[in-house]
Amino acid sequence: MKKRRVQVIAGIMTAGMLVMTGCGSAQTAEGETTAEPVVVEEAEPAAQAQSVDAIVTEPEAEAVEEATTEVVESDMEVTESSLSGTVAQGQATNFKSFNELLDYYRSQGGYSYAKLYLRGYRAGSGEVYAITDKTWSDSSSPRATFYTNPTGNQVICAGSLNTGSRMMRIDNSGVIFATSTFKTYETYLISADGMRLDHKDYAETDNDGSNGNPKCWGYFRDTVDVPKVERSISSLEYADITSKESSIPLIIFEPLN
């Protein structure tokens, strides 16, 4: 399997600031660019943007902004996925309840929501709200930001997905399907603590349509709270799992009027 080295950048922000950040991907596999995070001194209504905006607060810190770099090695040649570029995962918002969250986006205009129940988060009984600024005529969407409220009094931004053009889906067991390219297979869940949206399953092929002997690899797990164990898979297995996605029901969003 191919290998690559991935740089992970960690930043520490000055204490006392509020961050208004687009939880949507910075860049998708389709090449669509969305708004970058910006720092403001006080919370203001978020402008209509290409991605869903959420106001989150930074943890208290005494250090000024600085960056460290850690090199992580992976056996998988992961391409851009629907989760690429997501920011503010696990960050607390300024909202104490889902009603406050929905009222905020309702006041901005042009947003829609879906209430979901995902496997592994509060045994599948915890509410997760997906907010999007883009829906098609069938009320489906290729992108959304996902919010939880694990404590009951603090809404959390768990992350965002942006497939570029493919519609997000959810199966009867509460697993999200959000594949971004024809060379990947992507499913998603939220961690048991409600803080993190992550791949449940991820598979990838190097087949560009002209490769007669493609290599395929990936990992498959029950929840996002167990380790990822990467392995090679056959092209037949890859074709089998990807063929089932189109039969999964779409996530249907309702307008916030």
Question: What brief labels describe this structure?
Answer:
8% helix, six-stranded antiparallel beta sheet, 257 residues, single chain, disordered N terminus, mainly beta, 17 strands
Please render the helix and strand layout as text.
Blueprint: E1 4-12, E2 18-22, E3 38-40, E4 53-57, E5 66-74, E6 91-92, H1 98-108, E7 112-117, E8 127-132, E9 143-148, E10 156-162, E11 169-170, E12 176-177, E13 184-190, E14 197-205, E15 216-220, E16 231-233, H2 235-243, E17 254-255
Antiparallel strand pairs: 1-5, 2-3, 2-4, 6-10, 7-8, 7-17, 8-9, 9-10, 11-12, 12-13, 13-14, 14-15, 15-16
Specify Rg, calculated over alpha carbons.
18 Å
Oligomeric form of this entry? single chain
How many helices in DSSP terms?
2
Helix proportion: under 10%
Which stretches of 5+ consecutive residues score pLDDT under 50? 1-52, 57-75
Domain count: the total is 1
- Structural classification: mainly beta
Order of helices and strands: EEEEEEHEEEEEEEEEEHE
For the residues shown, what is the average pLDDT?
Answer: 76
Give the strand tally.
Answer: 17
Largest β sheet strand count, sense and barrel closure: 6 strands, antiparallel
Strands ordered across the widest β-sheet: 6-10-9-8-7-17
Shape: globular
Distance between the termini: 49 Å
Question: What does this molecule look like?
Answer:
This protein has helices spanning 98-108, 235-243, and strands spanning 4-12, 18-22, 38-40, 53-57, 66-74, 91-92, 112-117, 127-132, 143-148, 156-162, 169-170, 176-177, 184-190, 197-205, 216-220, 231-233, 254-255. It contains two helices and 17 strands. Strands 6-10-9-8-7-17 form a six-stranded antiparallel sheet, covered by helices on one side. Strands 11-12-13-14-15-16 form a six-stranded antiparallel sheet. A three-stranded antiparallel sheet has the order 3-2-4, with no helix packed on it. A hairpin with a 6-residue loop joins strand 13 (184-190) and strand 14. With 257 residues, it is mainly beta. It is globular and about 55 Å long. The chain has one domain.
